[in-house]
């Protein structure tokens, strides 16, 4: 247990650093493109990628997860996984090419036809990814994933910015994504050499695990990835661009916080699936750290979104601020529970599917009613209402997920909800401080540098307030061995190792 926890923490740290640098490149790329392009460009890409995501999820066969859980995968298992993935990629690519015309006709924009046809190539390329790459996760070795994350983002960044500067076209977003995918595939074979061959020898074995996960992912995609398709049917393309930009920004920002932990959870939980008490303890510790980090970040985004957008990309994107704020709220709520890793590790993928179906039944009527109520008040209010409906559905989904975690790992709801108690109270204190500072010291600087420095001062004040509040609440609760201790140990351990390496080099 101690060794697994240590390797889990190291893995999370590697992925965190990789995510931080990769998402920094992604954020810079998004901001540069937002300066050059217009909201309509982001809207076109949002609709196209949403259609691709739905089609990909419907045919998803997560054989990699099956290989992680497999006790002793052989070479033929990896050859089978490659074959299944390649066949699936070819089918999806052809389907996207054939559907490109009808989709463009439905949304009344012929540009969607060409975008979807090019994205089809990206889907096929990604299907050729080296299946042995999952051995890094299985063995809890993550520094190679760090190399891949940085490299693919760097190549995508250079390609996207170059195309945007030369052509000032939405193609910058597409070419950047294709360049990243191509780099990822090539590096997967460089980092873990493998010569695949076509065989379906173990297809039953792999798909028997994957089928319920496939259905669950399909339902999840209809829940959360179909937003641009639905919104695009009722909103002008430029408002879809506001949604696409806001969603892209928050996705990049929050990925660097929760993905390092979430990406290490499934292989770690798979090692503990025969020891339910140990699994429950590991889950609570991981989720505790996630809540401790994500909640204050979401609070900062909610309060500082407007000046951040103004400074970074200008006033033409200010209508995207509510999108960013609501997305931040949803990300904070979702950080309270990680059902998928624990359900997959314990072979409860059928429960994931039924959960997702229930959410579809609840979520889309809520969103539909919200759109109907806001319809007379213009497209901007329709977009905000739809997102608020999604926020309500997210809250319902979080509660359902917690009840499933309780049934799988025997963790009471009270313990799960308790993970967010101190972070929520500390965030309330931080919000009050930021509100007070905003009232006393409004953003009056005329220069961008002055505005940025004032914003930075607000952020540091909020961070200090949160840290002090957490420390006080932790002491009031009797200094428990909790996420606060785990996070402190991670930071101190990393600092000591860094110090040791610097001394050795000097």
Automatic annotation (TrEMBL):
It is found in: Cell membrane. The chain crosses the membrane at residues 12-36, 42-59, 80-103, 115-135, 155-180, 289-311, 317-339, 360-377, 383-405, 417-440, 452-474. It comes from the Bacteria. This is Lipopolysaccharide biosynthesis protein WzxC. Pfam families: Polysacc_synt_3. It comes from Cognatishimia activa. It is a multi-pass membrane protein. Keywords: Cell membrane, Membrane, Transmembrane, Transmembrane helix. Belongs to the polysaccharide synthase family.
